[in-house]
Design a protein that fits this description.
mainly alpha; three-stranded antiparallel beta sheet; about 60% helix; hpI Integrase, Chain A
Length: about 300
């Protein structure tokens, strides 16, 4: 069978075994960066050298390490399917190994609490102020905050149980992983702001429905948020950080307050505390080192 014929069967197999967003990523990456290099080839004739040549072509694109890793995992899953079906005797992608990692300078820029308040003061709309406040003080992913509805509020707790596709239809999906489904305790100020949003939506849209907390009938869009975020940063004379970096800001602040790593990991929906350690601890160390150096030269 040809590569394309087996791939058509593989996508039917994969569709029932992956979340919608994950499946869309797999098919997009496969169609753009794997299928074109093996079009017309016979699966049974696939050799190790073919995988090595493919990797060499991918290296020329200078993709990020994480993207290369996703391509490798996608291709390996496909070859595993080929082994399962008897087209190949072993996973030759696995035997070749993953892409060699390149040095990458990670950008974990964050806002201090003072910078955040300065930023928030310059946001024009109340709903946008509350969206960024929620991420900054509770560390959710942007897609998790966008997916929140009023039915997810349980007294002093917010139930994180959905993720939203930030592109295209912006439909609801299950969280990123099992640990992402969690309860987050909110304070009385956040509860009151959420109440004000609910009151506003009822006034604008009529009788109560289970509105999105940040948006109303529809969730806020990524592009709209970015546009207002850019305007606020310019007015406040602040460097602009990404939506996800408000989550980074939360993690850094919790580490600075010496909150236990396992507590931070649980609140952020990380599956393992090591993920939190690997991502954020070096950032806190850099901040402390900079503070020490600054104090010596003052």
């Amino acid at each position: 069978m040809t590569f394309e014929e087996v791939y058509e069967d593989f996508i039917l197999y994969a569709k029932s075994r992956h979340k919608k967003q994950g499946f869309e990523t797999i098919t997009r990456n496969f169609n753009l960066h794997i299928l074109p290099y093996f079009k017309g080839a016979s699966i049974c004739d696939l050799k190790t050298i073919d995988i090595i040549k493919w990797q060499n072509i991918i290296y020329e694109h200078h993709f990020s390490n994480s993207f290369n890793n996703n391509l490798y995992s996608t291709f390996s899953s496909f070859i595993n399917y080929c082994v399962l079906c008897g087209y190949l005797s072993s996973n030759i992608v696995l035997s070749v190994g993953n892409f060699k990692k390149n040095y990458e300078s990670k950008n974990y820029d964050i806002y201090t609490t003072f910078e955040f308040f300065k930023f928030r003061h310059n946001l024009e709309l109340f709903v946008h102020r509350q969206f960024f406040t929620f991420m900054f003080f509770y560390g959710t992913r942007p897609s998790e905050a966008m997916a929140l509805r009023f039915s997810d509020i349980k007294g002093n707790w917010v139930y994180i149980r959905h993720n939203i596709h930030r592109r295209g239809s912006r439909s609801l999906d299950t969280p990123k992983n099992v640990s992402s489904k969690r309860f987050i305790k909110i304070n009385m100020f956040m509860r009151f702001r959420i109440f004000l949003l609910k009151k506003y939506y009822i006034k604008v849209y009529g009788s109560y429905q289970d509105y999105f907390i940040f948006g109303g009938i529809k969730p806020l869009s990524t592009t709209t948020l970015d546009r207002y975020k850019s305007k606020a940063c310019k007015k406040a004379h602040l460097r602009e950080i990404t939506q996800h970096q408000f989550r980074h800001s939360y993690a850094s602040r919790m580490l600075h307050k010496k909150v236990p790593i396992d507590t931070i990991a649980r609140n952020m929906g990380h599956s393992k505390p090591s993920t939190t350690l690997n991502t954020y601890v070096h950032l806190e160390h850099e901040k402390r080192m900079l503070s020490i150096l600054n104090s010596r030269f003052n």
